Structures are given as structure tokens and as C-alpha cells.
Amino acid sequence: KTPTTSPSSSTKFTTRDRRYFFILSLSFRSDSMPSRRRTLLKVIILGDSGVGKTSLMNQYVNKKFSNQYKATIGADFLTKEVQFEDRLFTLQIWDTAGQERFQSLGVAFYRGADCCVLVYDVNSMKSFENLNNWREEFLIQASPSDPENFPFVLIGNKVDVDDGNSRVVSAKKAKAWCASKGNIPYFETSAKVGANVEEAFQCIAKDALKSGEEEELYLPDTIDVGTSNQQRSTGCEC
Ligand code: GDP
Ligand code: MG
Predict the structure, then answer these.
(1) I need a labelling partner for 168 at 20 to 30 A (CA). Which of 5, 108, 150, 155 fits?
(2) Residues 224 and 232: beta-carbon distance below 8 Å
């Protein structure tokens, strides 16, 4: 007799068999799934219109700068691969696409952020004063699980303008604000000449990674495939 290794075409599966196969396939999937380590880190950039958010992002990701003012770049985010020790991560940087004027950034923009970058223009007091609003708005919209310790990074941009002669916000003032909000890291940059941009984003990536890994601790280990129709909290809104 030759042993059969696969069911013949005439084999009929009962509903019960099918249910069994389905459950089997689920357990196979979870066994063979790659490690649940997060590799995607979401960073969002907030600040008044015109402070240089899009320019900073472009300088960091594409090493390019344009003097031309563009309110929108047409894409929601740019990505960049970053390496820490021997691990690779994808930094997903979300830009406001010009909507910051209308205060209409949807909840999808804020959801799941691992780090929030606040940007102001060192030549504009108004953009500095608005930082409180941007920070508050972020905390309300993103509602992170541990708001006290959520990583923010502050960037004072456009330090190149007029060789610093039109500057109205001092580094001291900016650092005092950072200290009052729980020691937010502070960088002064020029997206135009590319000064300090790489350094600022290194810090941003590091903070995002730290926050992403802490979040990972809250992920459930098992998936409940119970049949109850009751609403269950799965820890995500998908
Ligand atoms: P956003 O509205 O915050 O995204 O600002 P943009 O990146 O669109 O920049 C607004 C304007 O400021 C543009 O004309 C940029 O070319 C200019 N800009 C941005 N960053 C700098 C900078 O570091 N130095 C100078 N001189 N101009 C900048
Ligand atoms: Mg922009």
C-alpha cells in the first residue's frame, strides 16, 4: 500500500474540519511571524506655518533645500532608514502638508507618534510663543499613555538669517522653556545650510526608539480569538 500524503480530490471537508484548518493556520502564522520588534518609528513635526518644518525634513532626508515657499509637499510623510547599533529602523516623518494654518490635522496624523518635534523660527517671537499651543494640541490629540514622559524635541530654526542679526528669541529663553517642560532636548538649526540638522534628527530618532520600545511592553502576547461579539479592547484601534 502506498501511503497518501494529501487528501484525494474527492475528500469532503466538513464545516468542523474547515474551522479546525482555520485555527491551525492562525497558529502557524503566529509561529512563523517574524519577531514582533517594532522597526517603524513615527515622528511628527509641528510648529507655525513658515518656520521651516518641510525644509528641515527635506534637508535631513534628501539633503536638499529650496528657497521657494511651498505650503504643501503633497505627501503625508517621508521615510529614512536609520541604524542603531546593529539594528535598522525606518523613521517615518510626518509633515503637516500646509494644514497647520487651518488647524485641521486629522487624528490619523497624531496617532501612534513615537516622538514629536516642535519647530519655531528664532527670528519670530510669535512662532516661539505658539509652542505651548502646539505642545498642548499634540497632547490632546495624540493622548499618549504617559504624557509627562512623552519625548518632544525642540528646534529653533533659521539661525543663518541675516547672520543672526534679526534674531529675537535667545537660546537662553528657549532652553528655559525646555527646562520648564521636563528637559526637552533643544537644537538650533539652519535647514538652509544644513547646520545641526543631522544632529537634531539623531536625537529625534533615539528618543522615538526609546518610546517605541517602551510601548512594545504593552502589546498583548496572545490574540484572543473568542467568538463572543462583545467589544473587547485589543490595545489598538484597527
Ligand atoms: P513650513 O511651513 O514650516 O513647512 O516652512 P517651509 O519649510 O516651507 O519654509 C518656509 C520658508 O522659509 C521657505 O521659503 C524656506 O525656503 C525658508 N526656510 C526654511 N528653513 C530655513 C532656514 O533655515 N534658513 C533660511 N534662511 N530660510 C529657511
Ligand atoms: Mg510645510
Answers:
(1) 150
(2) yes
Q: Is the CB of 50 under 6 A from ligand 1?
A: yes
Residue 122: φ, ψ to 5°: -65, -10
Q: Which three cell numbers stand for residue 204?
A: 529625534
Cβ(61)–Cβ(78) under 8 Å?
yes
pLDDT digits (tens, 9 = 90+) for 13-72: 677 777 666 665 555 544 444 554 558 999 999 999 999 999 999 999 999 998 876 655
Predicted confidence (pLDDT) per residue in 77-96, tens digit: 889 999 888 888 999 999 88
Residue 65 Cα: closest atom of ligand 1: 16
Residue 226 has pLDDT above 90, yes or no: no
* Residue 130 Cβ contacting ligand 1 at under 6 Å: no
pTM here is 0.77
Give the span between the Cα atoms of 142 and 136, in whole angstroms: 10
Strand partners, 89: 82
